[in-house]
Give the backbone structure.
Amino acid sequence: MGVASTIRTDGETLARLDAVAKQMGRSRNWALNKAIEDFIDYHEWYFTKVQEGIKAAEEGHFATQEDIDSVFSEFGA
């Protein structure tokens, strides 16, 4: 069984949430839980990547000019 919580939001946001949930054939509750899970998943991934980057920098691992040029040329810059 889930734990109940309350959020405060404006009417426009709630209407948009309901519209998206309806388009998906899902409930408001499902849409809110999915949004929260996606938010947490993304931020956990992001913070892990930031910490990995900081650790790599502290260990002296940086991109070479060749690496940088390769990425830029890949995107036509």
